[in-house]
Amino acid sequence: MTTAEERELYVELVLQCAELVPRGRVTTYGAIADVVGERLGRGGPRLVGTVMATHGAAVAWWRVVRADGSLPPSHDAEARQAYLEEGTPLRPGGSVDMARAFWQPRLGAQ
DNA sequence: GTTATGACTATGG
DNA sequence: GCCATAGCCATAA
């Protein structure tokens, strides 16, 4: 069941999570899916990815990475430069240091 | 209704 | 570290 309203709300909550990520920190698709899914009762990492691919341009998409810290595909170069500016902890391999940079998203607060 | 696809994740080799 | 596989859920054809 996915009404237009629910899709819109899902998108907005996902974007809100991405927007709430502090400077120099990152979160993951799975974490956002978990938070939003708990509130809306459904969802999944792939849905978050779809949302970011569709509406991610409006938010700090580079602060949303994969669970292992790998940079988002298709824009990894841009993201890495943003990390350098923000001081996001990186690992030698080029991916994000999740142990230090991971930020747990919350809705309605931070 | 069925298949393919995607800015995913966990697990195993 | 990398690659393959399976599970995942919504969208598009």
Plain-language structure description:
With 110 residues, the protein is mainly alpha-helical. It contains five helices and two strands. Strands 1-2 form a two-stranded parallel sheet. Helix 1 (4-20) crosses helix 2 (29-40) and helix 2 (29-40) packs across helix 3. The protein is globular. The N and C termini lie far apart (30 Å).
Low-confidence stretches: none
Write the element-wise H/E pattern from the N-terminal end onward: HEHHEHH
CATH homology-level superfamily: Winged helix-like DNA-binding domain superfamily/Winged helix DNA-binding domain
Largest sheet: 2 strands, parallel
State the main characteristics.
two-stranded parallel sheet, Arc Repressor Mutant, subunit A, 5 helices, 110 residues, DNA-binding, 50% helix, single chain, mainly alpha
Compact summary:
The protein is mainly alpha-helical and 110 residues long.
Helix-strand layout with pairing:
Blueprint: H1 4-20, E1 27-28, H2 29-40, H3 45-55, E2 64-65, H4 76-86, H5 98-101
Parallel strand pairs: 1-2
Helix pairs in contact: 1-2, 2-3
The protein binds a DNA duplex (13 and 13 nucleotides) through residues 2, 7, 28-30, 33, 42-53, 56, 61, 64-68, 72-75, 93.
